[in-house]
């Protein structure tokens, strides 16, 4: 395997990590209207991802940096041609992050409701648009000889891309609901399991349609095999949830997302962005990659730092592995007192600034 192909799959690894990890963050954010019957419930839900949501989100930053360094032509075409969609994703992520930090700053219910709505929007919009983006990358877009996108915004909202967006939206939602059932106990846990059963059925139908569409229209033998594996693990996750095996349900759903993303990357090869108007204008792994010298340096850096990233990520999840419940939430205190104490409403499991759960020291 040459270096450009190796880095194509390393980039796929980082996007897989992002969709698996930030995927359930999006899902948890979208569950607030369904599982959050009152403010205490919503605080429990937010605290399930409080210590980790910003850590999960850094995977997309690394993925973007890797694409910029390893495949500058692909990066330039994608981020310029999909500019408005990418901007919408960025604004939604900002909206979500700000909402995590600010919803607890005032005690009024109306204040918190506004930020709760922004959390839902800031979670649902990226969940849909990332599927739209990757579906268009697999399908291809019109490119000129200089690899510039020549279509319009409406061209990106084609039936296949919309189906891809709905697939990621539902996958992430169900992934998040299963994560809530894994991380909570009591009534929220039971409601999350019941919701996962309902959303899981719809997810299976939509995801199956997308995977079949992809395999028939754009896939290869290997991508078809991977799509079949993703379908099996998705059904397995549903069965595991039915049997109250929370860990297996979550692990199988994570595997589903990982294998599905891998199948999209495999279906692309040797292209990274096909040109629908003229195959000669397509961006490929070869013509979109950086020089061999650049990729060699990047390989040594990755060899050193990627294992460290994985160890740190694993350590963080181990530290915050405890289940949460309504009883985990401390009583509301005055905002002024929260800033001075370590367990008040302004102090999340990993600090008010980074945990995003500034609601309560629920996992302490």
TrEMBL record:
Its main location: membrane. The chain crosses the membrane at residues 6-32, 74-98, 119-140, 160-182, 194-215, 221-241, 248-269, 297-320. The keyword S-adenosyl-L-methionine does not apply. GO terms for cellular component: cytochrome complex; plasma membrane. Coiled coil: none annotated. Signal peptide: none annotated. It comes from the Bacteria. GO terms for molecular function: electron transfer activity; metal ion binding; oxidoreductase activity, acting on diphenols and related substances as donors, oxygen as acceptor. Residues 334-364 are annotated as: Disordered. Keywords: Cell membrane, Electron transport, Heme, Iron, Membrane, Metal-binding, Transmembrane, Transmembrane helix, Transport. It is a multi-pass membrane protein. Residues 338-356 have a biased composition (Gly residues). One of its GO terms (biological process) is aerobic electron transport chain. It is found in: Cell membrane. Belongs to the cytochrome ubiquinol oxidase subunit 2 family. This is Cytochrome c oxidase assembly protein. The lineage of its organism: Bacteria, Bacillati, Actinomycetota, Actinomycetes, Micrococcales.
């Amino acid at each position: 395997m040459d270096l450009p192909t190796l880095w194509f799959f390393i980039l796929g690894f980082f996007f897989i990590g992002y969709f698996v990890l930030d995927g359930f963050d999006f899902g948890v954010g979208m569950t607030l209207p369904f599982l959050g019957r009152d403010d205490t419930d919503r605080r429990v839900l937010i605290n399930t991802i409080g210590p980790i949501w910003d850590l999960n989100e850094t995977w997309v930053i690394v993925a973007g940096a890797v694409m910029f360094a390893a495949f500058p032509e692909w990066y330039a075409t994608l981020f310029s041609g999909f500019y408005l969609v990418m901007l919408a994703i960025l604004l939604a992520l900002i909206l979500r992050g700000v909402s995590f930090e600010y919803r607890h700053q005032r005690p009024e219910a109306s204040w918190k409701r506004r930020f709760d709505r922004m959390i839902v929007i800031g979670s649902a919009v990226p969940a849909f648009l990332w599927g739209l983006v990757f579906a268009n990358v697999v399908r291809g877009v019109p490119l000129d000889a200089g690899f510039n996108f020549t279509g319009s915004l409406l061209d990106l909202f084609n039936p296949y891309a919309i189906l891809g967006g709905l697939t990621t939206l539902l996958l992430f939602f169900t992934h998040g609901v299963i994560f809530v059932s894994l991380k909570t106990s009591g009534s929220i846990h039971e409601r999350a399991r019941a919701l996962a059963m309902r959303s899981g059925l719809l997810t299976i139908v939509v995801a199956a349609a997308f995977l079949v569409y992809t395999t028939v229209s754009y896939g290869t033998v290997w991508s078809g095999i991977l799509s079949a594996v993703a379908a099996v693990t998705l059904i397995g996750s549903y069965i595991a949830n039915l049997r109250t095996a929370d860990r297996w349900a979550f692990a199988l759903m994570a595997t589903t997302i990982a294998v599905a993303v891998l199948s999209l990357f495999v279906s692309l090869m040797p292209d990274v962005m096909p040109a629908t108007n003229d195959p000669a204008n397509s961006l490929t792994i070869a013509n979109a990659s950086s020089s061999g010298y650049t990729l060699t340096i990047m390989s040594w850096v990755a060899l050193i730092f990627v294992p460290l990233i994985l160890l740190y990520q694993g350590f963080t999840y181990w530290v915050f592995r405890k289940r949460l419940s309504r009883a985990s939430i401390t009583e509301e205190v005055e905002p002024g007192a929260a800033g001075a104490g370590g367990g008040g409403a302004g102090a999340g499991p990993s600090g008010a600034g980074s945990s995003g759960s500034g609601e309560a020291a629920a996992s302490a």
